[in-house]
Write a structure and sequence with these properties.
The complex is a heterotrimer of chains A (384), B (409) and C (273).
Chain A: E1 8-16, H1 21-36, E2 41-46, E3 58-66, H2 69-75, E4 84-89, E5 113-122, H3 127-132, E6 141-146, H4 163-174, H5 181-192, H6 195-207, E7 209-213, E8 240-242, E9 261-265, H7 275-279, E10 285-287, E11 293-295, H8 305-309, E12 316-320, H9 331-336, H10 338-349
Parallel strand pairs in A: 1-4, 4-5, 5-6
Antiparallel strand pairs in A: 1-3, 2-3, 6-7, 9-12, 10-11
Helix pairs in contact in A: 1-4, 1-5, 4-5, 4-6, 5-6
Chain B: E1 15-20, H1 21-31, E2 36-39, H2 47-57, E3 64-67, H3 71-83, E4 88-92, H4 94-99, H5 101-109, E5 115-120, H6 134-137, E6 146-147, H7 152-167, E7 175-180, E8 188-193, H8 196-202, E9 219-221, H9 230-259, E10 268-271, E11 278-282, H10 287-299, E12 304-309, E13 311-313, H11 317-324, E14 329-334, H12 347-356, E15 364-369, H13 379-392, E16 402-404
Parallel strand pairs in B: 2-3, 2-4, 4-5, 5-7, 11-12, 11-14, 14-15, 15-16
Antiparallel strand pairs in B: 1-8, 6-13, 10-12
Helix pairs in contact in B: 1-2, 1-7, 3-5, 7-9
Chain C: H1 8-24, E1 36-40, H2 41-47, H3 49-57, E2 63-69, H4 110-117, E3 123-128, H5 132-145, E4 148-154, H6 158-161, H7 168-177, E5 184-187, E6 190-193, H8 195-201, H9 210-214, H10 225-240
Parallel strand pairs in C: 1-2, 2-4, 3-4
Antiparallel strand pairs in C: 3-5, 5-6
Helix pairs in contact in C: 1-3
The chains are: A alpha/beta (384), B alpha/beta (409), C alpha/beta (273).
Chain lengths: 384, 409, 273
């Protein structure tokens, strides 16, 4: 048995609020329970400030494991860990940066990861593709990908695709001193009596891909959002904050880090029926001078209602967020360069921009379970 | 702001009326041109609303008068009316005050200068109507200014002060005036009623400035915050409460100049203390029986006096230190209780002792719980209070006691 | 301005009263300002129903209370309210090994109760966000007619109902099409059914089985067949026994059918019997 060199380890799970709450909880609890099997102690908890969770808005849960109770206390002196050994993102689009509903500015996904720590991402994309969307590293770390899409396993009914077991297996690969594969397997066996679940842990262990990331690697293309918190002398009294006049958009309202999929619009086939504009719960559509509806990607959370209510087939297509670099509105692009835009639309969505051309269903494999059609609690996946 | 008027300019045209404490407050509502008030019945405070309703019915004032469906609604209604720029009035008593507690808490947090009356009444159970100060005192930590009146005249004067101080931009906090049930709310006294012109000089128009909730001023009030924000917001309220001390002094000076009333200090009313060795300290109407006792005891050669507290929040710490450190012993009379508190004392007792803790020269401070549930403080009790205060003077530790006065065993 | 849970009726009333008096006294520019107070099903149907009821009797104030009903206290972690449907799982009503259903109360009929109890309110309606135009029209009518008004909207909630947000509109449609959530408005004491509810009532559209609605949501995943049957039975009763489906839950006794032929002449025109 290799004893750990450190006295404790801190792991965070970054996840999509509500959709993956139960999943994150299961992973964190299992880390502690697996470590317990070799006599270590630990704690698992959710960041209180994330509650109440909002659909898709990035949230965090933590597992801290230590060699004894005193070391556990020492590692918990700061309630919300500022530094973690491993950050686990259970949706690869989270690498584009996260912003919880209560704090300000998009944060790089690796922000709390210590030097030479690990960023573990569930993804069907290659490590290179994931890294290409991750903010430029400030310090070296290891990117680990575990096969699997974003499992929106549901809240009341947990119908996950073994994401938690694969993640635990992969964790055993990178932190064997703390989480041993045998302990993980024994724990899963106890909990599930399901050999296939045990095999999923082994698969996570075997299939995890490690990619050393040097400082400076990654993208510098994401929007930098700096926010300085004012002091009491500069805040307006009476808990008053500036608001907008009717019809004005709030430039502070940036919700794009909540997105796993984004709607992409085929302006050629749009019949200007207003349905998307009417039904969007976040008022993300702007009417163009010609009566089209363009998505304001700064505000869109990617809920998919627009694609669902649009009466025209493949006019609004939900596409894996990892395929996009910016949050610019796209109608100007289409207006200036019709053919260029349509090529872009086809490349991103996998759907022909020409409605006369029959195309297979929209390419959404990259987003895994986040594809609502695969959501077991929805009609198509279902408990019919 | 200092007021530019000749002293007592309007005094000769003041009128005089025989009125209860409640009616005096209703008169202040009229003079202040209150915009919105909300009522709900509970005695003893509701005498104010009955008197105000008559003034409205008789066309004496133009107030949007809403009879609410409960105290929570009552306080929420005026809170929201205040946010759109209305001068407001509200009030309650005892457990009714507690039914509104949520709204009371947020009103201070929002820095909305709601002016309220708390007609002090015992808390249920058992159901009881008599005066006790625990209802008002329950909000002592929340950011409400808490003055206490002794007479109907003072009730009216403090109400006018309340809008002036609460609405001052440096303060912008709600005010709850303590009025002892029965002794003050329902006893009629001669009250001098200032002229409208004088009140208009004293009390400027309410102006929320850029905090006004109006479509032309797009703001959001009270969004949800987390730990990153709350301490700064609390700090702002703390600063407002600190500033309230000087704003009260300023308003008191102007009031005195204009109306010739209010005593020497805005915060303390001292009675026969110049050469006193032993004094009692308390607030509200208990001052009356104690003054009578003082006059009687002084004839017997006892150097006794009274210090009455007029503003419990902001607590006038420096004034209290300066005043009380002159005496050999101070008896604090609490018309309230704080079960399980240090030395099982009342609220005032422990606050005053805390204020004097670091003083080199400090008197023995001994506690008395008296007059709960509206029980009268009769002369033998007053004598007992002074005797026990005097007896405690020899040893500062004998103040670590709180005596219940006039309670059957 | 954020207000306290249960205070939306008072917030609407206080704001409207403040604006009214300030305009009357010339302290504020005289113009029409719409006052809308939002509440949820917890704050409106449970805690704040008294304040909303009081507000709807203050006919001199122009304000709209909009009850946004997502059938649970979703902001506090999804606890059941009086608007949570029969049998649904919430954190306060988990399905367990001993008790399959922890929540066995039928949904409180809020707009019907308010319409019945507040004859001077000129507009009370039940809408659904999935019928956006219908809802927009209802809000507009409420504000145009003035006085204290009330609109109750059913708003599918991916979080507490446990479905992918993409299906929000569809679930709203199903709630109406299954006859669970009838759409209507009461204008000056005249009740109009709207949208598909009207079509169902006129026999132009058949109600869908409630199972179509229930099966789409994780909060009903623990339902046994008998639970679905009970749910269907209750909805059927609403359509077969209520005086007005979704609005008035009682009917007229057989011996008192004359109520329907009541002499509606004003008192001075009535002949003595």
């Amino acid at each position: 048995m290799n004893d750990p060199k450190e006295t404790s380890i801190t792991v965070e799970v970054v996840y999509r609020g509500i959709f993956q709450k139960t999943l994150a909880q299961r992973i964190c609890r299992s880390i502690v329970l697996a470590a317990r099997k070799r006599g270590h102690t630990g704690t698992a908890f959710a960041r209180y400030g994330d509650s109440p969770e909002r659909n898709g808005v990035p949230a965090k849960q933590f597992a801290v494991v230590a060699i004894n109770d005193l070391e556990l206390e020492a590692s918990m002196a700061k309630y919300e860990p500022a530094v973690v050994d491993v950050s686990i993102a259970v949706d690869d689009t989270l690498v584009k940066g996260v912003e919880s509903w209560a704090w300000y500015g998009r944060q790089p996904i690796w922000k709390p990861v210590k030097k030479d720590g690990f960023l573990l991402v569930t993804s069907d994309n290659s490590p290179a593709d994931v890294l290409a969307q991750t903010d430029e590293a400030e310090r070296p770390y290891t990117l680990v990908t575990v096969p699997g899409g974003a499992s929106f396993a549901g809240l009341w009914v947990f119908k996950d695709d073994h994401t938690d077991y694969r993640v635990l297996g992969a964790l055993a690969r990178i932190e064997p001193e703390w989480v041993r594969l045998d302990d993980v397997k024994a724990l899963i066996k106890e909990q599930t009596k399901d050999e296939s679940a045990v095999q999923s842990a082994q698969y996570g262990y075997d299939a995890a891909k490690l990619r050393a990331v040097k400082a400076g690697e990654g993208t510098s293309g994401h929007e930098k959002l700096q926010f300085t918190k004012p002091g009491w002398t500069t805040m307006r009294p009476g808990i008053v904050v500036d608001a907008r006049k009717p019809g004005e958009r709030n430039p502070q309202y940036k919700k794009y880090t909540a997105r796993t999929l984004r709607p992409v619009v085929n302006f050629d086939t749009c019949i200007k029926c207003t349905m998307c504009w009417l039904d969007c719960p976040d008022e993300c559509f702007e009417v163009t001078p010609e009566g089209h509806y363009e998505v304001v990607y700064q505000a869109c959370i990617g809920c998919g209602i627009c694609a669902q209510v649009c009466p025209v087939k493949d006019c609004i297509v939900m596409v894996d967020e990892l395929r996009f670099e910016d949050n610019e509105d796209k109608w100007q692009f289409w207006k200036k360069d019709h053919d260029g835009y349509n090529k872009w639309f086809e490349a991103k969505s996998g759907v022909s921009a020409d409605p006369k051309v029959r195309t297979p269903a929209a390419r959404q494999e990259g987003a895994g379970n986040a594809n609502p059609a695969a959501n077991p609690t929805s009609a198509s996946g279902g408990d019919d | 702001m200092a007021i530019q008027v000749k002293e007592r300019e309007h005094q000769d045209v003041e009128t005089e009326q025989l009125m209860s404490g409640c009616e005096a407050i209703a008169e202040a509502i009229r003079l202040a041109d209150v915009d919105v008030m909300a009522a709900y019945p509970i005695r003893p405070y509701d005498g104010v609303m009955q008197a105000a309703a008559k003034l409205i019915a008789n066309g004496k004032m133009d107030v949007e008068y809403i009879v609410a469906d409960g105290e929570h609604s009552q306080f929420e209604i005026v809170k929201h009316a205040c946010a759109v720029g209305s001068r407001v009035f509200v009030g309650s008593s005892g457990v009714g005050w507690f039914y509104a507690f949520e709204a009371i808490a947020v009103t201070a947090g929002l820095r909305l200068p709601v002016v309220a009356i708390c007609g002090n009444r015992a808390l249920d159970d058992p159901g009881a109507f008599g005066t006790e100060h625990n209802d008002s005192l329950a909000v002592r930590d929340l950011g409400w200014l808490l003055p206490w009146a002794e007479t109907a005249q003072e009730a009216m004067d403090l109400a006018l002060m309340a809008w002036r101080v609460g609405e001052d931009k440096r303060v912008s906090l709600p005010v709850a005036i303590g009025l002892d049930g029965a002794f003050l709310t329902h006893s009629q006294q001669i009250v001098r009623i200032p002229t409208q012109a004088a009140v208009n000089t004293f009390l400027p128009r309410f102006d929320l400035g850029d905090r006004l909730l109006h479509p032309d001023n797009p703001i959001t009030i009270a969004p949800q915050v987390d730990q990153d924000w709350l301490m700064e917001i609390r700090m702002q309220n703390d600063q407002a409460m600190r500033k309230a001390h000087d704003v009260v002094s300023e308003a008191h000076a102007d009031f005195k100049k204009l109306f010739g009333r209010g005593g020497d200090s805005p915060f303390l009313d001292e009675y026969m203390t110049d050469d006193a060795e032993y004094v009692v300290f308390g607030q509200g109407t208990l001052a009356l029986p104690m003054k009578v006792a003082i006059r009687r005891l002084r004839k017997e050669g006892h150097k006794v006096g009274l210090v009455r507290l007029k503003w419990f929040r902001p607590f006038p710490t420096q004034e209290i230190v300066k005043s009380l450190s002159r005496f050999k012993a101070v008896g604090i009379i609490d018309r309230d209780y704080s079960f399980g508190s240090p030395h099982y004392g009342g609220v005032l007792y422990n606050e005053v002792r805390s204020a004097l803790y670091s003083q080199e020269k400090r008197p023995t401070i001994v506690g008395f719980i008296a007059g709960l549930g509206g029980r009268e403080i009769e002369q033998p009790m007053a004598t007992e209070i002074f005797e026990k205060t005097k007896a405690a003077a020899s040893d500062i530790k004998s103040g670590d006691t709180c005596h219940w006065i006039g309670v059957r065993s | 301005m954020h207000t306290q849970l249960g205070a939306s009726g008072s917030a609407a009333l206080g704001t409207a009263a403040g604006l009214k008096v300030l305009m009357r006294k010339g302290k504020l520019k005289n113009e029409k300002i719409n006052v809308i107070a939002f509440c949820g099903d917890g704050g409106g149907a449970d805690m704040g129903i008294g304040a909303i009821s009081a507000t709807l009797t203050h006919k001199d104030y122009n304000c709209l209370v909009l009850l946004y009903d997502n059938e649970s206290y979703a902001n506090t972690d999804i606890q059941l309210s009086s608007q949570t449907p029969y049998g649904a799982v919430t954190t306060f009503s988990p399905s367990g090994t001993k008790k399959r259903l922890m929540h066995t109360r039928w949904k409180k009929n809020v707009p019907g109760m308010l319409a019945a109890g507040h004859p001077e309110s000129r507009y009370i309606a039940a809408g659904c966000a999935a019928y956006a135009v219908d809802l927009m029209n209802k809000i507009r009518k409420a504000l145009e007619l003035g006085g204290p008004t009330f609109v109750h909207t059913l708003d599918p909630c991916p979080k507490g109902w446990d479905y992918h947000p993409q299906y929000s509109q569809e679930l709203g449609h199903l709630a109406v099409e299954c006859g669970i959530w009838p759409l209507y408005e009461v204008i000056d004491r005249v009740c109009n059914l709207t949208g598909p509810t009207r079509q169902i009532a006129e026999g132009r559209k058949k109600r869908k089985p409630v199972y179509e609605y229930l099966k789409r949501q994780g909060r009903f995943a623990h339902f046994a067949e008998e639970d679905v049957e009970h749910f269907q039975h209750e909805v059927d009763k609403m359509w077969t026994e209520w005086l007005i489906p979704g609005v008035i839950p009682f009917t007229i006794a057989a011996k008192d059918q004359t109520i329907l032929k009541i002499d509606k002449k004003p008192l001075h025109e009535q002949k003595t019997a």
